[in-house]
Here is the input.
Amino acid sequence: MGTIEAQFWIGVHGVIIGEGGRILLLRRAPAMLYRPGHWDLPGGHLALDEDIHECLHREVAEETGLEVELGPMLGLNKANDGPYVQMIFACRPKQPVRELRLRPQEHDAAQWITVAQIRQLPRLIPYLSAILSRGILDRI
Here is the structure.
């Protein structure tokens, strides 16, 4: 059986909306090869045999320890810095958030902040800057 070579990668990311409409952002750890120290939404790459919703549930649980309810897709983004397409979904925690369980090799900080505060952060992952400029986060 042959192998499939990906033409592009699909990323699935969650805009996790918490108390007061604040959004959860994670800071990429210094050891990360791509954009260390940049703020990002929870999420990751879709595996070839994985459903989009399964991927987002898995990635959010791995990165934060949270279980989320998925809402509507807020938008798509084609990356300018590589063969990536990001799908952005609204999410809400299933339970009140008492603590986050970060994977220190992936993320070294987390914060719940407003869209206005996100706009002030100096180091956003490129797709997050792109969806901010297109007003995608203003739809929540």
Observations:
- The chain has a mean pLDDT of 92.
- The chain has one domain: 19-139.
- The radius of gyration is 15 Å.
